[in-house]
């Protein structure tokens, strides 16, 4: 398949993008190399190859959820740079 300048212009129009002449040539070259790669992949014999659904054989490799003790509110507030008696204080990030 040959990528033409008209094809690049149509793709740019559909994607609502504007390119100058140099960018169009670069995109045309990139698209052509991608299509050539896919065409090369299509020549491979995959008759005895099963489809790959996952990149590894591991399934559900999660640790067991174990409930453990926690620290108290006062212990959590000990290392806080700015706090009051119940909460951490942080700088205001949302302006109204």
Provide structural commentary.
The chain has about 100 residues and is mostly helical. It has a domain of about 40 residues: Histone, subunit A. The chain contains three helices and no strands. About 0% of the residues are buried.
List keywords for this structure.
0% strand, Histone, subunit A, flat, 96 residues, single chain, mainly alpha
Strand content: under 5%
Helical fraction: 25-40%
Arithmetic mean pLDDT: 89
Oligomer: single chain
Measured distance between first and last alpha carbons: 55 Å
At the third CATH level, what is the topology name of the domain at 5-42?
Histone, subunit A
How many beta-strand segments? 0
Question: Can you count the helices?
Answer: 3
Uncertain stretches of 5 or more adjacent residues: none
Q: What is the annotated CATH architecture of the domain at 5-42? A: Orthogonal Bundle
General shape: flat
Topology diagram in text:
Layout lengths: L4 H10 L6 H22 L30 H5 L19
Short synopsis of the structure:
This protein has 96 residues and is an all-alpha fold. It has helices spanning 5-14, 21-42, 73-77.
């Amino acid at each position: 398949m040959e990528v033409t300048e008209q094809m690049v212009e149509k793709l740019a129009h559909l994607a609502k993008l504007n390119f100058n002449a140099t960018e169009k040539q670069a995109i045309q070259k990139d698209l052509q190399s991608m299509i050539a790669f896919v065409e090369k992949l299509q020549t491979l014999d995959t008759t005895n190859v099963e489809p790959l659904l996952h990149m590894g054989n591991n399934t559900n490799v999660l640790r067991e959820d174990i409930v453990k003790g926690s620290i108290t509110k006062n212990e959590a507030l000990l290392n806080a740079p700015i706090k009051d008696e119940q909460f951490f204080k942080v700088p205001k990030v949302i302006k109204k």
